[in-house]
Amino acid sequence: MAKSAKLTVFKLADAGDVMRTITCHLNGVTFNRSRAFEAFDTFCATEKSVGPVDGSLEVTGRWAGDVAPDDVEEVLDDLMDDDEAHAWEYYPQGETTGKRKYTGNALLVDFTVSATVPGVVEVSGTLEVDGNVTRTFVGS
Questions:
Q1: Which of 46, 39, 113 is nearest to 76 (CA)?
Q2: Residue 92: Cβ-neighbour burial (10 angstroms; 0-12, 13-18, 19+)
Q3: Residue 6 has what pLDDT?
Q4: Which H or E element spans position 101?
Q5: CA-to-CA distance for 13 and 25, rounded, in angstroms?
Q6: Model's pTM, two decimal places?
Q7: pLDDT digit string (tens) for 26-75?
Q8: Is the Cβ–Cβ distance between 119 and 97 less than 8 Å?
Q9: pLDDT at residue number 29
Q10: Taking the domains of the chain in order of start, what are their residue ranges?
Q11: Distance between CA atoms of 59 and 24, rounded to whole angstroms?
Q12: What pLDDT does 53 receive?
């Protein structure tokens, strides 16, 4: 069976601020953006309160236990011990010119490594966005 090409690319700066591509052993990247919203009635009208935009990134991956983790576990584990936010780049459709690119800084707040099936290692992490997210196109 031929190996199909995957387009998504995720890069994360390690604790030394070196940008590392950790895509090869990831099988999921979810970029969440949200904001608090509240609507309430007064005697004269309905008022609305909108909070600032918040964001997070969820990354998941897996690999065979006898294969080196291609920096995923190393980068995430080192960042868990670091109190600083680090740069990230997310290319949901790959790095082809004209495709969407998201960049920003984030702090790793959750990191899990588990072995659920003999020989398979699974990893997951949650990064909280710190500051603004830039949304551009590759090549622009």
A1: 113
A2: middle
A3: 65
A4: strand 100-117
A5: 16
A6: 0.81
A7: 899 999 988 888 888 888 888 887 777 789 999 998 877 776 665 778 88
A8: no
A9: 94
A10: 9-33+40-137
A11: 12
A12: 76
Query: Considering all CA atoms of the chain, what is the largest pairwise distance in Å, rounded to the nearest integer?
Result: 67
Helix (H, G, I), strand (E, B) or coil at 6: coil
- 12, 75 contact by CB (below 8 A): yes
Number of Cα atoms under 13 Å in the Cβ half of residue 135: 4
Residue 115: predicted pLDDT: 82
Block residue for tokens 């009635």:
41
- Give the contacts of 27 (CB within 8 A, at least 6 positions apart): 60, 61, 62
How far is residue 105's CA from residue 112's CA, in Å, rounded to a whole number? Answer: 21
**What is the second-level CATH architecture of the domain 9-33+40-137?**
Roll (2.30)
